[in-house]
Amino acid sequence: MTPYSYLNIDDTVYETEVPSSYPKRFSGMPDPHQVRAFIPGVIAEIRVSPGQKVREKDVLLLLEAMKMFNELCSPSDGEVVDILVKPGDRVEKGQMLVRIK
Question: How far apart, in whole angstroms, are the C-alpha atoms of residue 68 and residue 97?
Answer without folding.
Answer: 18
